Amino acid sequence: MCSRAAAPHHVIGEGKSLFTEAPLGSGAPGTFLSRCSGPCTSSSVFPPVRAVPGGRAAAALGSEIVVNEVNFVRKCIATDTSQYDLWGKLVCTNFKISFITDDPMPLQKFHYKNLLLGEHDVPLTCIEQIVTVNDAKRKQKVLGPNQKLKFNPTELIIYCKDFRIVRFRFDEAGPESAKKVCLAIAHYSQPTDLQLLFAFEYVGEIYHNPAKKVNGIDPGGGGSGISSASSQQTPLFETYSDWDREIKRTGASEWRVCSVNEGYMISTCLPEYFVVPSSLADQDLKLYSYSFIGRRMPLWSWNHPNGSALVRMANIKDVLQQRRIDQRICNAITRSHPLRSDVYKSDLDKCLPNIQEIQAAHNKLKQLCVNDPFDDTEEKWLSSLENTRWLEYIRAFLKHSAELVYMMECKHVSVVLQEEEGRDLSCLAASLIQVMLDPYFRTIVGFQSLIQKEWVMAGYQFLDRCNHLKRSDKESPLFLMFLDCVWQLLEQYPAAFEFSEVYLTILYDSARISLFGTFLFNCPHQRVKESTEFAISKNIQLGDEKGLRFPCVWDWSLQFTSRDRLLFHNPLYVGKSTPSVHNGAPRTFKRSKKNYSSTLRGVPPAIKNGIIGEQEFLPRRNSLILKLKPEFFHSAEGQSHSMEQYFRDWFAKPVDLHGVILPHLSGTQIKLWKLCYFRWVPEAQINHGGSITAFHRASLLADEVDMLNRSLRQYKSNSSLQGHCSELDQSRMYFRANGLNDTSGTPDFLSSSFPFSPVGNLCRRSILGTPLSKFLSGAKIWLSTETLANED
């Protein structure tokens, strides 16, 4: 274990500014902290920490250490001119890289503020690739961990996992200082061990010194932190009671919470508590577990009001016992159904793209969005987008999930999602099915509980799939694809979701911040094991706790003010608190099949533009229709007709916002998520345009409606004038009306990138004639050609 405490360093925290004052240009020595398997040693010297007057930095975190820094750095703002460039100091800490400047940001009138990150900060776990360039020697190198740099860099380009590209020039900086800060960034952004991620150092410091809590909040917990008035907590599904409440919420009376894996005695990649059929005894589960890959026994996910269950299951590796165990599990699921309906098994490995194909599509999408997306070949861009296959895979997941919704909703059968290990594709498919079927998961707290249940606790490998330790052979953006699929549904049914696309985008960004334990581990057992080992090495007394408690990403107050968190709310959302009216009487959602059909219009009846088209029901490879059990229908024609008729009937009716929603899958309906992928591209920014303009206007209208409702309530209750004014000041909207019939125009700072700003991030910069796609395709390809040839 690497012990940084043994080496002198600058600690950030205890209410102090991020940078302490020192004379400009002073050269007092410090120590560069090396990541290693044994005790750390000094490997280089860096200047002391200094503040730039007027520079803005995020609030300091306990145990945040300044590793290296360099003064007189120029951050490039535009590709064709240097007149807008910013001058300041480039700093590398063990949490992020920061650029501290007193220059105002040009061409920028708004920027939402993350309390953990400054305007120019990049978390180390968000860095994908680091490229150093020397103009004079015409050399460039992609820096890996513990590598040497044989030339003094004149330029540093950082490629981020969120499609950002930031570029710094060292023309006026000391050459040795520039080299050291580049090496420090490469070193700390590519750790070799999980316990070297910043979250461990932060939490360790909190346990030793509780006064250093980030923003005054303890680690752990599931608080939503959405608004000051919100007291609803996000269930983390770490306890027996969380699972029991979910069983009761969904009416799964024939299922029970199982504690056979308590202490992770059976499987290290399952949660301690999960739900199984009541007819399966613990002793049987222990016996059957040996036959499943990873000993991952079947996991209950959700129950339909009609009694159909959604279950996830890994493959059975014991060929000799496969038929017997499979039959036993299916019989137990059948007995848990009130109608004793049969079970339908969906083999996701055969029906959906694999994780390698999804990663390849993501790489192509990144190259397309970053490498000159808007140039003279614009007419080829859409075909290039199609060739990435990203939208094709989005459509595949939505389509297959909708077909399984049909099985549960219309055929009243339980669905088993089968996958080799049961912790990748099944996370995505199970989550989408529940979002389509259950309106609770379309609320903010419900959606967060869904991610906790189907991703975090079910053993989705965030550490490997997000590539926090830069092991690219295991990387795959399934979580991003899930958020993209949800965004497609949000785009098609905006009034059905409580959250906005800003919320989805920030949630994706939060997976790249190494402070939160939510998206840091491959499974709950890994958190307990690794944090316990870390606690022992740091002499931390855990008591009865199972491992260290890390900050939870659902505590949004850690990152944003209550004002900025209002951007998470969708102004078009029709919630239970505002029931629709039917025949003069208010109607609220009840979990029954009858209520899945009715009240609000909003979907065009044209079937060909929806999930159903004539070509969709021809026999096709991996079709759900070709996989249905014979007893479900009398013939293949009957199978096709039954599903077609269900979708045809569904799209012909008005949409019930608190019932089932199904995706439109035509070519024009599946879109590119521009806010997520284009927000850092200056050329793609539309001033006073984009979807934010509709969001702004809808917010004003919703705020006016709220004002009228509050006024009516105050009038009816004859409250005092003081109470009246107090309530009128309340608002759930980020954009607020200046009064009734507000006719104010669009604010000047609104653009299609709102609330993000592309200013200061480059997406069209080529280096010495080398296309960006070569950098983004990975260091191995690039190093095998130009870099190795140019090395001294």
What does this structure look like?
There is one protein chain. The chain has 792 residues and is of the alpha+beta class. Helix 7 (355-370) runs antiparallel to helix 8 (381-388), helix 9 (390-409) crosses helix 13 and helix 13 (478-492) packs antiparallel against helix 14 (501-510). A hairpin with a 5-residue loop joins strand 12 and strand 13. Residues 1-56, 227-231, 578-635, 720-724 and 763-792 have low confidence and may be disordered. It is built from 21 helices and 17 strands. The strands form 4 sheets. Strands 1, 2, 3, 4, 5, 6, 7, 8 and 9 form a 9-stranded antiparallel sheet that branches. It has helices spanning 175-188, 198-208, 240-250, 282-289, 319-335, 348-351, 355-370, 381-388, 390-409, 425-437, 444-456, 462-465, 478-492, 501-510, 524-537, 636-652, 674-678, 691-717, 721-728, 772-776, 779-790, and strands spanning 10-12, 64-75, 86-93, 96-101, 122-123, 127-134, 139-142, 155-160, 165-169, 255-258, 274-277, 299-303, 309-314, 343-347, 414-419, 580-582, 585-587. It is globular and about 75 Å long.
Tally of DSSP β-strands: 17
Task: Kindly report the average pLDDT value.
Answer: 79
The best one-word shape is globular
Strand % is 5-15%
Low-pLDDT stretches: 1-56, 227-231, 578-635, 720-724, 763-792
- Which structural class fits the helix and strand makeup? alpha+beta
Determine the number of helices (DSSP H or I, runs of at least 4 residues): 21
Largest sheet: 9 strands, antiparallel
Q: In angstroms, what is the radius of gyration? A: 27 Å
Percent of residues in helices comes to: 25-40%
Q: How far from one another are the termini?
A: 34 Å
